[in-house]
Amino acid sequence: MNKDNFPVSQLPISFEDIQAAARAIEGAVERTPMRLSRTLSSITGAEVWLKFENLQFTAAFKERGALNKLINLTDAEKKAGVIAMSAGNHAQGVAYHAQRLGIPATIVMPQNTPFVKVEHTRNFGARVILHGDMLTEADSFARETEKKEGLTFIHPYDDPLVVAGQGTVAIEMMEDGPEFDDLIVPVGGGGLIGGIAVAAKHMNPNIRIHGCEPLMYPSLHAAMRGEEAQVGGATIAEGIAVKTVGKIGAAICRELIEDVMLLDEAHLERAITLLLTVEKTVAEGAGAAGLAALLAHPDRFRGRRVGLVVCGGNIDTRLLASVLTRSLVREKRLSNIRIIGGDNPGLLGKVAKIIGDGGANIIEVQHNRIALDVPAKGAEFDILIETRDAQHTQEICSALADEGFPPRTN
To answer: pTM score, two decimals?
Structure first.
């Protein structure tokens, strides 16, 4: 089918549905900023615009769809209460707006959900139940509880009202940004990309929509090819680690999007780091996925106007610290060097002086005398050093070698 002239009557939702959602949620969710990033544009070669959905009150776009669904419940359904299953962001969106509207909410979350998302959901007044290791297990339990307690299930992505709510992101992007050539959208269940595709293609039929998923969870990538996805593994983008894409999102994407890019963990980590260091904004793995796709495929977008959705910012602080530290290692700003020498007094002091005189900082030292690959009268030092960059690290290593202490790096 020609994506520039799609028959809207065949799609699960319409642009009018998204406009209705925009009117319904106006004033209750943030109209988040849309900004040009000059530095990311320079790095990638594209003109990069960011939609900061991580600045929603719950730090994710999910509250748009959740609120649109909650508003459209009957009075009886509101009184009985709602239930949702989610790895976190949908949970917080449902819990927060259910609390605002006086609707009792129960949230079922996988047991491995990041602590910060569990706590935030509880703080919004929801009853939180941790069950199962995967979203599918949490979903089954939530469905059982729905029937047992007479609740209304709020699906995180496979519901027309939810998808329409997520599509309001695109209306704001198209109104507040330039005339985009491309939008790159993270994909989990497909609700966000489905809503964005319908709205953006209606407002600009020539725009190209691209999805992106973790390499370990290629759900939409497989669905677009009529294949069964082979999924599994611990991805930093747990918010979009979905086994099976939703029917609504998949149906829309088959008609309207260009492709789905698969992302390795290194690009996701680099994207998180760049958003923090360049844009001074915190993004979770899913929220950084659009930038990760741009970093992984710069030639595809060079010279084009590209809109990215920073769709969530709920990352565990320990994980964020680990990502930032690992980025220093990749950039050779943190390096572990090993020196083997005689076990003589003052040896470590001489080595430390060379490193200090070179402008590097010693973070940690481990001293080993009993390793079998070290001479009986020798000693081994593992020294973690901090430098400006890879070139500076090489200069330190050269200085050590010149003084008779040739290091091994690892």
So the answer is: 0.88
